[in-house]
Amino acid sequence: MRVGNVDRLISVGNVMVDITAHLDQLPQRGGDVLADESAITPGGSFNLLVAARRQGLRAAYAGAHGTGPFGDLVRAALAADSVEVLLEPTPGSDTGYDIAMIDGGGERTFVTAFGAEATLDPAQLAGLRMRAGDAVHVSGYGLLARTNAAVLEPWLAIVDPGQLVIFDPGPLVADLEPAALQQALQRSNWISCNEHEAAVLSGERDPAAAAAVMARFGGGVLVRMGAGGCLVQPAGERGRRVAAVPTDAVDTNGAGDAHTGAFVAALAAGLAPEKAAYRANAAAALAVSRRGPATAPTRAETDRLIASASRTSAG
Fold first, then answer.
1. DSSP 101
2. Residue 34, domain member (yes or no)
3. 104: number of Cβ within 10 Å
4. Phi/psi at 297 (nearest 5 deg)?
5. Rg of the chain on CA atoms, in Å
6. What is the CATH number of the domain that holds 239?
7. Residue 70 sits in which domain range?
8. What is the number of structural domains in the chain?
9. Strands in the chain per DSSP E
10. Which of 10, 30, 223, 302 is 20 to 30 A from 191, comparing alpha carbons?
């Protein structure tokens, strides 16, 4: 399909609340450490939707959300970034949360407690009115047996073949419900993952070899490699490494979401996959240089960084 036709990104992933704490190092078992700073902010697929929106692509959340204080926080934050909410709140259940501990090296460790976002039902998905210009984002968090795998698997099978589907397996890739994972891989136009997730999905440690294995499902593959940039392999083509944009990482929380959101927005704007991947690298570089879970840059900020990197390279 021509991805330039995309004018809105819809996520059926899980928008949750991130309780973040910055630490020098993680506590030992049974121990306690003091956080340098902390925050309570929306996270999960929120980061991807906001990343796409800040790059100029319309975005909408089609996952479930709760009726308690965390649900209120999520809806207010989505509205503040002009992200549409397509479903009504789920009565009697609040939105879930995860505790994200970021150590002195910028690495994050999560503990997740699911809530209303893990309770999608078939009627909610059947009521979605998809348009020709909609792209669909699927998160691995939604393909766990204890979340929405039983609902999303049959729904993905009937998503219009003309609509772009982006699958982000996420850090729990090894625990995804097998049938739902298989359906997501087969239906995806793009699989976006990091090196570890690519290795789990493919059985190959080398990113290029992993991408080649995943490409057998028929779609494109994007493997994020942090400071090594990324590897992009459009459907039916060979994989190509795309250089990173140098940065000083202070917080990697939400980096993958910033990358994927910017990549989809760039494809929707008509960029070729390799150029879209470089733009995603630049957006991720800006995101990790800032503290906080939803630090994806605007389109103008990304433009300035790319221009600066180009001048530095030319010099």
1. E
2. no
3. 12
4. -80, 170
5. 18
6. 3.40.1190.20
7. 3-14+44-91+117-310
8. 1
9. 8-11, 15-22, 37-44, 58-61, 84-85, 97-102, 108-113, 134-139, 165-168, 190-194, 220-224, 230-233, 240-242
10. 302
DSSP code at position 49: H
Is 250 part of any domain?
Answer: yes
Location of structure tokens 């009521």 = 127
What one-letter code names the amino acid at 98?
A: D
- Using the structure block, give the residue that is written with the tokens 């001048």: 311
Percent helix, percent strand, percent coil in the chain, to nearest 5: 40, 20, 40
The H or E element spanning position 80 is helix 69-80
The DSSP code sequence of 207-253 is HHHHHHHHGGGSSEEEEE-GGG-EEEE-TTS--EEEPPPP---S--T
Q: What global pTM score does this model have?
A: 0.91
Identify the CA nearest to 12 among candidates 62, 52, 86, 58: 62
Question: Strand, helix or coil at 263?
Answer: helix
Tell me the pairing of strands 165-168 and 190-194. Answer: parallel
Tokens of 101: 């501990």
